[in-house]
Design a protein that fits this description.
Structural class: alpha/beta
CATH topology of the largest domain: Rossmann fold
Largest sheet: 5 strands, parallel
Distance between the termini: 40 Å
CATH superfamily of the largest domain: Glucose-6-phosphate isomerase like protein, domain 1
Radius of gyration: 19 Å
Number of helices: 16
CATH class of the largest domain: Alpha Beta
Number of strands: 10
Helix content: 40-55%
Shape: globular
Order of helices and strands: HHHEHEHEHEHEHHHHEHEHEHEHEH
């Protein structure tokens, strides 16, 4: 079978991450100077970039002690409401740097008094030109519509941003990511659980995808990939929200995909959720979480051997591979999902 573009670009992630990390780590002092003039962070994004922003939010709040929030771009673009953003670091994220809504919202934030950063794969793009500090990812051209290497390099850029804002972690952890992702691709494709999970999902109309804390953005991104590349209903939820009612939808036709970083303070809750799901007669499929989540799950794919603060850079990779395999199992071309384009414009 011909290799899809999506699968080829999944395999390009180790080198894309290596280039991006080595290019951006020297810019930490520049970020520190800009961040010193601010007290909180506002992320501006849509789609996969918005899921990357969720990672950035949890990273900065849990490891740098600063308030971080997700913007509502329509406040700027539709309502035209001016806010006091003095003391805010506005961080806009867009793989292309050409989404007009995101460019306009970053310009609005600057006009409202914010300092500005852009994370984009589009060097020389309108978004990069709008920001005071553009952090350019070096993913190379991404031809498949579902974001893979542009997403993980965005996470790498946000990890560097976090170091500049005050995340008290070892940059050496970040430098280990490319090799870890390379090994994780091999381990995932060799795992018997891959075929087991793909086969199970090919026979159901949808799934619940859940994680918490720093892994929450990964759960949202995996749910998005299942929806856009496989046309299945996939609900991405924090497991705290899942337990507040939506868990009622988990049954023999709606399995749970559970995402966790090994060593995370949220791992015990994820394991307990897997046990509850299986106790209710449904299937629970683990992504990461080490042997504990694997033992509690129906089947599980490996996660990265990385500390929690950078684990999401690898944690999404088994999910990407699973989605690409599932799309082909369903007779869908994962490179060109119906109704989608590489650059999405919204009003």
């Amino acid at each position: 079978m011909t290799t899809s573009r999506m699968r080829a670009e999944i395999g390009e992630q180790p080198e894309a991450l290596r280039r991006t990390i080595e290019a951006l780590l020297p810019r930490v002092p520049e970020i520190e100077r800009l961040a010193a003039e601010t007290r909180q962070v506002l992320f501006i994004a849509r789609g996969s970039s918005d899921n990357a922003a969720v990672y950035g939010r949890y990273l900065i709040e849990s490891h740098a002690g600063r308030l971080a929030t997700l913007a509502a771009p329509s406040v700027a673009t539709t309502y035209g409401r001016k806010l006091d953003l003095d003391g805010v670091l506005a961080v806009a994220i867009s793989q292309s740097g050409k989404t007009e809504e995101i460019v306009e919202t970053l310009a609005w934030a600057k006009d409202c008094g914010a300092r500005t950063v852009a994370v984009t794969n589009g060097e020389g793009s309108p978004l990069a030109e709008t920001a005071e500090v553009p952090l350019i990812t070096l993913a190379g051209d991404e031809l498949a519509v579902p974001a893979t290497k542009t997403y993980t390099t965005q996470l790498a850029a946000l990890a560097v941003l976090g170091l500049g804002i005050g995340v008290d972690c070892d940059p050496a952890d970040l430098r280990r990511v490319p090799d870890e992702v390379e090994g994780l691709i091999r381990a995932t494709e060799a795992s018997p659980a891959l075929g087991r999970i793909v086969e199970a999902l090919s026979e159901v109309p949808g799934a619940v995808v859940s994680g918490r804390g720093i892994a929450f953005g990964t759960a949202l991104e995996l749910a998005l990939k299942i929806k856009e590349a496989c046309y299945l209903h996939a609900m991405g939820l924090s497991y705290a929200d899942l337990l507040h009612g939506p868990i009622a939808v988990v049954d023999d036709q709606t399995p749970a995909l559970l995402v966790a970083a090994e060593g995370s303070p949220t791992l015990a809750g994820t394991i307990a959720l897997a046990e509850r799901v299986r106790g209710a007669g449904a299937e629970a499929f683990g992504f990461g979480g080490g042997s504990g989540l694997a033992q509690a799950s129906t089947a599980a794919l490996p996660g990265p051997d990385l500390p929690e603060w950078v684990a999401p850079l690898g944690l999404i990779v088994p999910g990407q591979i699973m989605v690409e395999n599932l799309a082909r199992r369903l007779g869908i071309d994962p490179d060109v999902p119906r109704g989608l384009n590489k650059v999405t414009q919204t009003d």
